[in-house]
Amino acid sequence: MNTALSLSLSPALGVMLAALVGLMLVRVPIAFAMLASGFAYLIVKQQDLALVVEQVGNGLYNSYVLLAVPLFVLAANLMNAGTVSERIFDFCRILVGRWRGGLAQVDVLVSVIFSGMSGSAIADAAGPGLVTIQQMLKKPEYSPGFAGAIVVASATIGPIIPPSIPMVIYALVSGSSVGALFLAGVVPGLLMAVVLMVAVHIIAVRKNMPREAPVPRAEWPNILLRGAMPLSLPIVLLTGIYSGAFTPTEAAAVAALHALVLAGVVYRALSWRSLAAVFLESTRASAIITMVIAGSFILNYAFTSEGVPQALATWVSAQQLSPLQFLLLVNAVFLVLGCFLDTSVMLLVFVPMLLPTAKALGIDLVHFGVVVIVNMMIGLITPPFGMLLFVTNALTGIPIKAMLREGWLFLVMLLLLLLAMTLFPQLVLWLPQTMGYGVR
After folding, report:
1. Calpha distance 384→99 (Å, rounded)
2. What pLDDT is recorded for position 329?
3. For 89-93, 154-158, 184-188, 418-422, which range has the lowest pLDDT when averaged over its residues?
4. Selected residue with higher pLDDT from 25 and 332
5. What is this structure's pTM?
6. 155-212 pLDDT, tens digit each
7. What burial letters (b/e) apply to 15-43, b meaning 16+ CB within 10 Å?
8. What backbone phi and psi angles, to 5 degrees, belong to 147?
9. Is residue 272 exposed (0-12), middle (13-18) or buried (19+ Cβ within 10 Å)?
């Protein structure tokens, strides 16, 4: 307790946190806010400012796994630009379109399939999610709020089913196996789809939504063929990773090449101009992620120098928390932080401080990582700063209040699943253990 009190009174740490919060409140980009607050810490500590270059340079140089991030971003953007979303949508209409609330059920299934290609919740909402909303708004039984709510809720599946950009970053900060994390996300991701489909059915029955008109059987072969081709990407990725043909990092390059061939050569949906736009947008998004990661290195240096992770572990030990109590506390804290902070900040700044405690309590880091990432995805749809809410609002004009009003059941179902994952680790660890990964 004394350690925690001395940390709270550290002038350098106080200045750094005040600078970080202050800059974020005035809407300075997160990466620059993190770097500036790191500089402020070094200045107050009277340390050499060149430490920023050292920490950032060493961190990026030693992080081979980070090469996967820009390549997965590129793959997602190529898929979105190459008419893949529309093909997957038509494919899923045949499978679940006749259920009550058919288009909403289609959206959930589309998110499951697209998650095996992009690894990004934002890409899911901006690509296939937008296609689904446009289709739902053509029918009177789907209100704009409901259409937006199911799209933002189902987009949270994207980073859970592999490949996953947040899992790659978590592997960086925790030292966990990317392959084990990818496997561990499969069952939780599918369960997320199941609970959302159940919620859609409940709402559809309550509102007496009619069933969709069936797709003519004569059109099935062409639609199934067009929609099945994108499914080859997750199959290629997972087979290659778990057969040992390539590493998860190399899989990102395979994903980008596969997406380029599919969208550009097979579908002929990319012009040279649109391809250049895809590369430009992918470069911009990758630069943003890299800058945030760079900022996190200096912040983590500051927290480590001040002994914050060790003090937190000592405090938890003094409270005699069980592993389950610790996980429940982490969930509660992250659910609150997720209402205000960006996912990248929590993943890169707060998670490293909790890892020593998780290790000391014997919590498997793969289980811990998946639970934390699911928690953060739920944060993307919680007010006041849920990023998916803002993205969907910007793309469609659907009011955020309408999405929140119509989507509360989706949020409740995801929270119940998060609780189940916390209480029953085998929901996460069963598949990695079955595939022979050395997790407890």
Report:
1. 33
2. 92
3. 89-93
4. 332
5. 0.81
6. 999 889 888 888 988 998 898 888 899 889 999 999 999 999 999 999 998 988 877 7
7. bbbebbeebbeeebebbebbbbbbbbbbe
8. -60, -45
9. exposed
**Taking residues 51-71, what's their average pLDDT?**
71
Q: What one-letter code names the amino acid at 222?
A: N
Residues 6 or more apart whose CB falls under 8 angstroms from that of 175 comprise 365
Q: Are 188 and 365 in contact (CB under 8 A)?
A: no
Whole-number Å distance between alpha carbons of 197 and 107? 10
When pLDDT is averaged across residues 362-383 and rounded to a whole number, the result is 92
| Domain-embedded: residue 325 | yes
Cα distance between residue 150 and residue 96, in whole Å: 15
Q: Which amino acid type is present at position 346?
A: M
DSSP at 65: G
Structural domain boundaries, residue 54: 48-434
Confidence tier at 395 by pLDDT (50, 70, 90): confident
Q: Find out whether the peptide bond into 159 is cis, omega within 30 degrees of 0.
A: no
Q: Which spans in 119-219 are helix H?
A: 121-126, 128-136, 144-155, 165-174, 178-206
Residue 380 lies in a domain: yes
Residue 391 lies in a domain: yes
Confidence of residue 6 (pLDDT cuts 50, 70, 90): very low
**Peptide bond before residue 163 is cis, with ω within 30 degrees of 0:** yes
330 found inside a domain: yes
How many Å apart are CA 406 and CA 146, to the nearest integer?
Answer: 5
Burial (CB count <10 Å: 0-12, 13-18, 19+), residue 377: buried
| Structural contact between residues 91 and 228, judged by C-beta atoms closer than 8 angstroms | yes
Q: Say which amino acid occupies 51.
A: L
CA–CA separation, 72 and 168 (whole Å): 10
- Taking residue 88's Cβ as centre, other Cβ atoms within 10 Å add up to 28
Cβ atoms of 262 and 233 within 8 Å: the answer is yes
**Do the beta carbons of residue 107 and residue 151 sit within 8 Å?**
yes
Euclidean distance between CA atoms 190 and 301, whole angstroms: 37
In the prediction, which pLDDT does 219 show?
Answer: 81
Please give the tally of structural domains in the chain: 1
Q: Please, how many CA atoms are within 13 Å of residue 55, restricted to the half-sphere of its CB? A: 22
The candidate with the shortest Cα–Cα distance to 131, out of 89, 77, 82, is 89
Share of the chain above pLDDT 90, in %: 23
Residue-wise pLDDT for 272-315, tens only, equals: 888 898 899 888 878 887 887 788 778 878 887 887 777 777 77
